[in-house]
Write a structure and sequence with these properties.
The chain is mainly α. It is built from twelve helices and no strands. It has helices at about 1-10, 30-35, 50-80, 95-105, 110-140, 140-155, 160-170, 175-200, 205-210, 215-255, 260-270, 270-300. α5 packs antiparallel against α10 and α7 crosses α8 (about 175-200). The radius of gyration is 32 Å and the shape is globular. The N and C termini lie far apart (about 70 Å). Residues about 25-45 have low confidence and may be disordered.
Length: about 300
């Protein structure tokens, strides 16, 4: 009863003497404060030094783990050769291969590497650009897909060595057939992955872009390519790997310079150390080019929050 009396007493009080009269006037801002407290309001992320240090240390650990297996293999091969378990005339130890690389470096090894890098760069760029253009056409147009897809998939099944005699007959023995062969190798992985990425774009995104009046070019630039970028980057990395493979096929048959030519020269002179040195150089060049594309991929896709981004 006393509580009811106090409640009636409060209701009957004048407005000026009411206990709530000292509160500030209510406004719509209070709704925003209640619905979105200050601690819940989004603010742009600020780079955190500790987080950067954590990512850097993670990258170093990943690199060290990646180097562990090759180092163990080199140590095992060196020890096996020293103990006579492996015939050194068939499989030279890593120390002999290192001396061979040093000898080649004192001659014209850097020039050979530069020639191969130039061929791969030009061929990969031509093949990737053509693959992106054709992939956009096939991925966006059903008629183009029905017309081109069967023929392109048939051409994709042709081995690299099968192209060599035809390109030599058509284009001669200069740089043109080598670059064309590398472009063919880079074309198909980029094309296949880009088409798969375009087919995986959410149709609702395209509908939203159409509702907002985006043109076909704007849809491709602002919706299709960003949505298909993960698959495109995978295709570019695979295309780079195949570009190095097709380079070897081109330089082993019709070249007088390049790392592939070193392979052929080592085979003809029965020098397994030169062959293994050329293979090691190709592996390092392929790894460096793939790491460059991986860094570009991580930068372009830094907005993703996926499992793979935790270690990058």
């Amino acid at each position: 009863m006393r509580a009811l009396d106090n409640a009636f007493e409060t209701l009957s009080m004048p407005v000026e003497s009411h206990p709530l009269s000292s509160l500030p006037p209510f406004s719509s801002a209070h709704l925003l404060d209640v619905a979105y407290p200050a601690e819940c309001v989004y603010t742009p992320a600020v780079p955190v030094t500790a987080r950067q240090r954590t990512r850097a240390s993670t990258g170093v650990r990943v690199t060290l783990w990646g180097m562990a297996l090759p180092l163990l293999l080199l140590i095992a091969l060196e020890g096996s050769a020293a103990l006579g378990w492996i015939p050194i005339h068939l499989l030279p130890p890593p120390s002999a291969i290192a001396r061979t690389i040093a000898t080649l470096a004192s001659r014209d090894l850097l020039a050979q590497i530069a020639v191969s890098i130039a061929r791969v760069t030009v061929g990969f760029a031509l093949g990737a650009l053509l693959a992106i253009a054709v992939g956009l056409l096939v991925g966006m147009q059903r008629r183009a897909e029905a017309l081109l897809e069967p023929s392109l998939q048939a051409l994709r099944a042709i081995p690299s060595l099968a192209w060599v005699p035809l390109l030599l007959l058509w284009l001669g023995i200069d740089e043109t057939p080598k670059i064309v062969l590398i472009a063919i190798g880079a074309f198909f992985p980029v094309y296949t992955n880009l088409v798969a990425g375009i087919h995986g774009v959410d149709r609702k995104l395209l509908e939203v872009g159409t509702i907002h009046g985006l043109s076909a070019q704007a849809l491709i630039r602002r919706i299709v390519l960003p949505a298909a970028l993960p698959q495109l980057m995978t295709g570019l990395r695979n295309g780079m790997s195949l570009a190095w493979m097709f380079l070897v096929a081109a330089e082993m048959i019709a070249a007088t310079k390049g790392v592939g030519y070193l392979l052929s020269d080592g085979r003809e002179t029965s020098r397994p150390d030169i062959v293994l040195a050329a293979i090691l150089i190709l592996a390092l060049l392929g790894k460096l080019s793939d790491s460059l594309l991986k860094r570009i991929e991580n930068h372009q896709l830094r907005w993703r929050s996926v499992l793979g981004s935790a270690s990058t």
